[in-house]
Specification:
about 60% strand, four-stranded antiparallel beta sheet, mainly beta, Enolase-like, domain 1, about 60 residues, 4 strands
Length: about 60
């Protein structure tokens, strides 16, 4: 398995929550897709991750 493409985009959270440290209305979340050369059911296997505030990372895999 080889990585053939990595795509990243930042999207605004658009949240009205605020506390004494964070103003979430101005924060963004990074979304990353890692595309491999493996093909399943005619589509490349791609992994996705999101990192909203450097505290949580979530990976999912699609075929």
């Amino acid at each position: 398995m080889r990585i053939v493409d990595i795509r990243e985009t930042a999207v605004p959270l658009k949240c009205e929550l605020r506390n004494s440290i964070f103003d979430f209305s101005e924060m963004t979340m990074s979304v990353v897709a890692v595309v491999t050369d493996v093909v399943r059911d005619g589509r490349p296997v791609t992994g996705f991750a999101s990192l909203p505030d450097s505290r949580m990372m979530r990976w999912s895999r699609t075929a």
